[in-house]
Amino acid sequence: MSLNFGRTQLAIPGPSIIPERVLNAMHRPSPNIYHGELVDMVDTLFPDLKAVARTKHHAAIYIANGHGAWEAALANTLNRGDKVLVITTGRFGEGWAALARTMGIETQILDFGLQSDADPEKLEEALRADTNKEIKAVMTVHVDTATSVLNDVPALRKAIDNAGHDALFMVDCIASLGCDQFEMDDWGVDVMMTGCQKGLMTPAGMSFVYFNDKAAAARETASPSFYWDWTPRANPDVFYQQFGGTAPTHHLYGLREALNIIVHEEGIEAVWKRHATIAKAIWAAVDTWGGGDSNGDKSNVPLMHHNIADPAKRSTAVSAITTAPGIAGKVRDWCENEAGITLGIGLGLAEPGTPQWDQQFRIGHMGHQNVAMTMAVLGSIETALIASGAEPGSGALTAAAKILAAH
User: Fold this and answer.
1) Is the peptide bond before 15 cis (omega within 30 degrees of 0)?
2) Residue 180 CB contacts under 8 Å (≥ 6 apart), including other chains
3) Please, which pLDDT band fits residue 294 given cuts at 50, 70 and 90?
4) Of 136, 138, 164, nearest to 222 (Cα)?
5) Order of strands across the sheet with 318-323?
6) Average pLDDT value for residue range 387-396
7) Residues 376 and 27 sit within 8 Å (Cβ to Cβ)
8) Around Cβ 170, how many Cβ atoms within 10 Å?
């Protein structure tokens, strides 16, 4: 007998859960794509997209996933043969660097491993060593979804300034925008990109690139293709130029409703606080479970721990967790098959088929999240741990509840 009959729940770090209001907004006939309601509605999106990013500068929408946004950011600012410095703290920094290399861009890697955030002093040192100013851009992720690390963007900006370097500062906020605090203008970010399917709570298929005037000037010496060129998208003469052709009509209606929730109802600062509270509740549960035994034999093998040890350096959107051998795989399987809760795999922290693969799982807690959804995930994980034969530390759900109750 299975208990998995009823509504299922995604607890992966994107795509995130889509609010029913967003789905309902998309459930409609196709609109006129040349004038009228759709055109008027799209005009209302840009002020709200900029409000979420905390910028007064430019924004472009692409019918693409995050990889498309990566390419758009590079294509509009760099040329084949240019050199960039890429800060890596997990799989997604590495992925952005790999894409840059396919475009003929030379990449210098500043790697901080899988359990640490980026060190601003190391960045400053690397830029000071670039005496000929060959580095055209510094690229980093705000949150690496694979490791759950939260990089200190203002400190990295300060390191660039301290080095007296004029490289563009480019930040991937695909996992963080609408979850972790981000201040594009105040933090001195020149180019930022994100996707619609995480903190913005819209079905996957759109991405966004934000850029300031310094980055717009770099576009004058770059040679993006028709599709990736952000100039007509951000400053169109006619409507279709905003999308390089036909607009992603129903995604746009969904995005409009999601932004209504984020910007006009909850407010972006309240969104940040809600994510922080829910994250702390999940962290408290993980810490409590970690005090238990992995196999019930009192062997004192730690049951689990956070991939990022320092809470101040963790994202509030995703938690990457390492368990005793075999535990994570059992938990992932039991939660999906018996509880209807899908947890994230240990992306980039282990290779599929290795023993370490079954020691990693991730909890996505981004976007459309509340107390009931949070406690459902935690209760299912605790049940899965017991079903696997582990003895999790007692009181995890109470620890989480106390944080949620005290918000």
Assistant:
1) yes
2) 142, 143, 150, 272, 275, 315, 316, 317
3) low
4) 136
5) 9-11, 341-345, 360-364, 318-323, 304-306
6) 95
7) no
8) 26
CA distance 275 to 358: 27
CB 99 within 8 A of CB 67: yes
**All domains of the chain, ordered by start, with CATH?**
9-15+267-405 (3.90.1150.10), 31-250 (3.40.640.10)
DSSP 260: I
Q: Which two tokens stand for residue 392?
A: 């999790």
Q: Residue 196 half-sphere exposure, CB side, CA atoms within 13 Å?
A: 29
The residue written with tokens 């039991």 in the block is 334
Q: Is the separation of the CB atoms in 284 and 378 below 8 Å?
A: no
Instruction: State mean pLDDT over 377-401.
Output: 97
CA 28 to chain centre: 29
Helix, coil or strand: residue 342: strand
Mean pLDDT of the chain: 96
Model confidence over 59-89: pLDDT tens digits? 999 999 999 999 999 999 999 999 999 999 9
